[in-house]
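tool=predict chain=A
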Amino acid sequence: MRGLTAVAGGFIDYTTRFVYWMCGLFTARIGLVVFMPLLAIGLAYFLMPKTEYLPEGNREILFGILLPPPGYNLAELEHIGEDSGKRHSTAD
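tool=predict ok
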């Protein structure tokens, strides 16, 4: 249990020193404000799949989920689904 206590204490000390450092230096705050969005954009770009992995064909597809209120029966749900399909269909 002493090892876990030492790790937790080290984490608290590190976090405390980091917060005091951030609060003390204006350049550290600006640096963090610039670094975090750049990190997020860089990770998003790095983790984005290559275009050859994406499906081919018609990319104008709309997926929908119908969450009706309680008490609707299946016939009413089918009517709502067909009506929504007619409204959003591009095959005119």
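The longest helix spans residues 2-24. The CA atoms of residues 80 and 87 lie 11 Å apart.
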